[in-house]
Amino acid sequence: MKTTILSAIGLLALAGSVSAQTAFLATGTGISNGTPSEPPPQTFYALDVATCSVSTVGTMGDSITAMDFDNAGNLVGIRATDFTPPYTLYSIDTGSGALTSIIDLTDGGGDPNVGNFPDMAFDPTTGNWYAWTESGDDLTQVDPGTGVVTVLGDAYPGNNPSAGSGTSVDSSGTIWTIPCSGCGDGARAGNGNGEERGGVIADALYTVDPTTGLASFVVQLTGEDTNFTINGMDFASDGTLYAIEGGFCNDTNCATRLVSIDTTSGAITEVCPQAALPTGVDAVAIAGLPASVAVPLMNHWMFLAIALLLGSVAAVQVWRRQG
């Protein structure tokens, strides 16, 4: 009897449990250790999005500038530093930060000079991997089996965003990108399509056609730090788009913060301030249940299961007493 009642209480507790949402962060090379306050390069961190608490997971051993989770929960990243091959596709151990090489990337002709990759994204609807390349600033498709990187087309015909290029795919398979967010001077162009330093396409949110590679303007960004760029971004399971904002601080040790981006209005909202995050964060991947989502303590099926359980216990006790 006591055991059964405790089981019912356990169901109640289980129904109300919520797993915290974690943002995994990676710092690349190029961070000087000459300043004691700077973090070591190639470090893997875990960030609790709800509390903005950061813990060091481990040292990766290589520079990861782009990473994302697949449908099975595997974290994959790309080594990309200063346009110097090899550009290696890695599996990342979220418990230790250890890297396991999958394959070195090349173009279709075997050339390893496929360019820096500021961000990458997994499409949960097709299983395809995409990565943004700074060798032309275009979207590419990455084949993890062969290592071949295929440029899908000219994303911004006649323009070059020059930096940034956070990229992510939402749950419906739409590919989103932000070219050179914050690299302008804060003076918006009349048509809302960017600022001088980044060209006419900067500081805005775009979607990308995976067939043609062409980027289409969606909305102008607001609320960004005009000295910073979007280093990387990722959708959470509730559809929230999170991003790491940092860079262009005239130093390799740039401050970074976690922000959310409204894909309808373009509004950028700070989630975790610069004081909470390590400097030099270059990649982000979101895992776990969204902490901001209100999870019901019990639905009607849980109530029914517990009621039946307690009802059966009562019936057994009555039968025993009558017997």
Question: Any overview of this molecule?
Answer:
The chain has two domains: 1-18 and 297-323, no CATH class; 21-294, Neuraminidase (6 Propeller). The chain has helices at 2-15, 300-322; strands at residues 22-27, 43-48, 53-59, 64-69, 75-79, 87-92, 99-105, 119-122, 129-133, 138-142, 149-151, 164-169, 175-179, 204-208, 215-220, 229-235, 241-246, 256-261, 268-272, 281-287. Helices cover 11% and strands 35% of the residues. The chain is mostly beta strands and 323 residues long. The strands form five sheets. Strands 3-2-1-20 form a four-stranded antiparallel beta sheet, with no helix packed on it. A four-stranded antiparallel beta sheet has the order 4-5-6-7, with no helix packed on it. Strands 8-9-10-11 form a four-stranded antiparallel beta sheet, with no helix packed on it.
CATH class of the largest domain: Mainly Beta
Number of strands: 20
The assembly state of the depicted protein chains is single chain
CATH T-level topology of the largest domain: Neuraminidase
CATH A-level architecture of the largest domain: 6 Propeller
